[in-house]
Each structure stands twice: as structure tokens, then as C-alpha cells.
Amino acid sequence: SDATSLKRKAAEAAFAELEEGMNIGIGTGSTAEAFVRVLSEHVAAGFAITGVATSERTEALCRELGVSTKTLDELPILDVTVDGADEVDHDLRLIKGGGGALLREKIVAFSSARMIVIADSSKKVQTLGAFPLPIEVNGFGLTSTFMAIRRLTETLGLEGEIVLRKSGDKPFITDGGHLILDASFGRIPDPEALSAALATIPGIVEHGLFLNLASMAILAGPDGIEMLNA
Ligand code: DER
Q1: How many CA atoms lie within 13 A of 166 on its CB side?
Q2: What is the arithmetic mean of pLDDT over 131-155?
Q3: Where is the active site (predicted)?
């Protein structure tokens, strides 16, 4: 479908940013998987690269397609991370976490000199928040954490449903063993203020606001590729 080809076009443009011998972080989600497929074709043709996966799911795909990976402990300093996003604004602020891998994605992106976001152009927004913000929580005292988030976001003027992410009829469990709350704020006019406020709640492990991490976004649309640079 043309959605797949748009993902592939963005993935190919991201590959063009790589150099042989780089250590790269590899994201999670369908666009990141298109990138792994593009990468595997070049690896098969002799392109030397080592990846650090951001999820078990991505790790399994790399193994299946012959892209060599190491752990972040083996490669703690990465040249670039290539990853998808659920929303990208004009300042390269992101909402991520739709695929449930936000904690490892954020740690890997933070360990990289650069972060390249690949997405179809439908992910570009004026203001973040139409996509529900994933908030990864420990789960101990979940109701207390939930109430703290509710109270705190209301003081920021943010309303909307906050729901526990499910996998079938059971709570979704992340690779790190945590739970995810999805908060439908609708619009987040001040992502920095929200990020700082969430950091004050001890039960929150991490959230899907990626600020000051992306250095480039490659957005594929029906009329071509748009590159956004920080
Ligand atoms: O979970 C994530 O952050 C993923 O990158 C995801 O949000 C983007 O997934 P997609 O490429 O399948 O749209």
C-alpha cells in the first residue's frame, strides 16, 4: 500500500544519513521496521553497521533479517538513532510510545549523538496532544499515581481521559515490566511544563514527550520527502 511505500521512502532517506561502521540505535514500530528492512538489504550487500535495538520486537526483526545488534551496555555511545514517532511538531518535539517501547527508545536516543525521526507526513502537527500521551508507570500504588497525574495535569489546564493500556483484556506490560497510561489531552500547549511536572511524580518511570532529542525529522508525503532540522 502507499502507506508502506511512504514509510520505506523515509527509511531510505534515513539510511542515506548513515556511514559504514556506525553504531546506531534502532527504533520500534512499523516505520522503524521499514528501516530495518532497508538496512538489512544494505547489510546483505556488505554495509558494515551494528545496531542497538529499542525493544524485544525490533531485536527479533534484526536477528531475523541479519542486522547485527549489541546491547546498549556493550555500545553505550551511539552515533545516531533512527526511530518513528506518533507526532512531530515544528520544533522537533515528539510524542512517542504508541508501540509501548518509549522507555528504551528514550534511553537509546539519549545515548546517541543524533536522533533521526522517520514518519509519514501525517505525523506532523502544529501542537502536540491529539495523539494520547503514553505515560509509563511502575504500577505500585497505581491509583495513587493515577490521581497524582490527574490532579497535576488539571493544574496545567489539561483535561481528558487517562486510561490504562490493555493487551487484550489484560494490562499491557512493557519490556521493562511496567504499565502504560494513555492520556488524551487533546492539545498540550506547553510540553516542557508538562514534562517537568510529570517528573515530580515518583510512580512515573518515563513518558512519551521527547524534547531536545530529535535532531532531524524525515517526513514522507504523497508529494515527496520533507526534512525538518533542529
Ligand atoms: O512507539 C513508538 O514510539 C513508535 O515509534 C511509534 O509511535 C511509531 O510507530 P509507527 O511508525 O508504526 O507509526
Answers
A1: 4
A2: 98
A3: 105
Residue of 7, 28, 35, 103 to test ligand 1 pocket, by largest number of atoms within 8 Å of CB: 28
Asked if pLDDT for residue 206 goes beyond 70, the answer is yes
Bridge-partner residues for 81, per DSSP? 25, 115
Query: Taking the CB of residue 114, how many other CB atoms lie within 10 A of it?
Result: 18
pLDDT digits (tens, 9 = 90+) for 57-108: 999 999 999 999 999 999 999 999 999 999 999 999 999 999 999 999 999 9
Helix axes 2-15, 30-44, angle to 10 degrees: 60
Mean pLDDT to the nearest integer, 103-115: 98
**Are residues 117 and 83 in contact, defined by beta-carbon separation less than 8 angstroms?**
yes
87 touches 130 (CB < 8 A): yes
Q: Which of 32, 37, 34, 38 is nearest to 53 (CA)?
A: 32
